[in-house]
Design brief:
Length: 419
């Protein structure tokens, strides 16, 4: 954010530095309203995102106490500038509960970098690539009987099961516990309409999820196994190991970010391929386009819509003064539809050449699980379109997830038309 830095530090005019911050206003006089808790925003945020980009690129919601950046360049640069945009208070607009264990996404360097190096030892590209046969076997196992039924809930019967099963394999969670773990993650993400606080059920979900992985960690310390928890216990760089709370925090994060967001990504993929049958025909005729389709879905309608940061210094952006300590939402979903970065951004195009997005973050917090999410999305789309190239969605069955951060469906009935 070079233009921002120049404003914050002052410009040199006539040989002297001029401090520009005091003369700026706190917000532009705009009529657009945005709340990440509004259910109508959950249904379709994109018209509001466009108005934010055009009318209030530094938007201020005084009632909920946040600023929002919506243009691609601003979001991209902010994600890289961790010194100014701190993650230490968490990535949600709501403050973390006391039951939430320490997680690397809620840390800043240098501690975040050291922990990420340790965790990445158990999350290498080679290890992820080795998971492809497992992902494909699971997908076929769940999908084959569904195709025979000719009608099924894509989310509950497939999209939620494959990522959860993969994560469970990595963490050593038995199948008998998978619905429990996913249920806790679901209630933790849910928000009531126009309510900022985490519901009581969500707090209990966080407590249960953290407690579950704490017990798994204790089991692995007594009896190591061939899973990621055991690897994390043994991970060491320069004599440093992960603390128990940090291991629990990573498992907690993986159960949410590695499961829920991928589930929603798969559902969003099928939704938009149904709404764009010409694009679906392209990937049926040429499956080599499927990786590009996954990238386009994460740009066009990403399951992660926003991440929160806290300012460590006063900042001047688009004529507004953002004070130290204020919370800033980085609107990934808005940035990825910015016409300043993407030609025809509201067009869904599986052939689009995407040079960069913020779908999986950027900078020190770029998603560790991005390669796994891409792998799962690709394999599931390959198997679906090989077995059921013609299908339709029962629109009446669509049920949205209501979350400030995550966008997608909780239910989506699919009818197989031809095999």
């Amino acid at each position: 954010m070079a233009f921002i830095d120049s404003l914050v530090r002052g410009r040199v005019q006539g040989g002297r530095s001029v401090d520009l911050v005091p003369s700026l206003t706190y917000a532009n006089p705009v009529t657009v309203q945005f709340s990440p808790y509004a259910y109508d925003i959950h249904e379709n945020p994109y018209p509001t995102y466009k108005r934010l980009r055009d009318e209030a690129p530094a938007y201020h919601n005084a009632e909920l106490g946040f600023w929002a950046l919506s243009r691609f360049a601003d979001v991209f640069d902010a994600m890289q500038d961790w010194q100014t945009f701190s993650s230490a208070a968490g990535v949600s607009l709501e403050k973390s509960t006391a039951m939430t264990p320490p997680m690397i996404i809620a840390m800043d360097p240098p501690r975040q970098v050291r922990l990420r190096r340790l965790i990445s030892l158990a999350f290498t590209p080679r290890r992820i690539a080795m998971l492809e046969p497992k992902v494909r076997d699971l997908t076929v196992e769940y999908l084959a009987p569904l195709v025979e039924r000719r009608e099924f809930d894509l989310i509950q019967d497939l999209a939620a099961k494959v990522p959860m099963d993969v994560i469970s394999t990595m963490l050593g969670v038995p199948r008998s516990d998978q619905d429990l773990v996913r249920g806790w993650a679901d209630v933790l993400l849910h928000r009531e309409a126009n309510r900022a606080e985490i519901p009581a059920a969500g707090i209990e979900g966080a407590k249960s999820l953290a407690g579950y992985f704490a017990s798994k960690l204790a089991e692995r310390r007594r009896q190591p196994s061939d899973d990621m928890i055991s690897d994390l216990i043994e991970a060491e760089i320069d004599g440093e190991r992960l603390a128990d709370g940090e291991i629990v925090g990573f498992c907690f994060l993986l159960a949410i970010a590695g499961n829920e967001t991928t589930t929603k990504m798969i559902g969003n993929s099928i939704y938009w391929l149904t709404r764009n049958p010409d694009q679906r025909r392209l990937i049926v005729d040429d499956p080599s386009l499927i990786p590009g389709a996954v990238e386009e879905v994460t740009r066009y309608d990403n399951s992660t819509q926003m991440l929160a940061r806290v300012l460590t210094r006063d900042l001047a952006v688009h004529g507004c003064k953002l004070p130290t300590g204020d919370r800033v939402l980085l609107l990934l979903g808005a940035a990825n539809r910015d016409e300043r970065e993407f030609p025809e951004p509201d067009s869904f195009n599986v052939r689009r050449k995407i040079e960069r997005t913020v779908a999986f973050g950027h900078g020190v917090h770029v998603c560790l699980g991005a390669s796994l999410a891409r792998l799962e999305g690709r394999v599931v789309l390959e198997e679906i379109h090989a077995r059921m190239p013609e299908y339709e969605i029962d629109e009446a069955s669509l049920e949205r997830v209501h979350s400030a951060n995550v966008r997608g469906y909780a239910s989506m009935t699919i009818r197989v038309l031809r095999r």
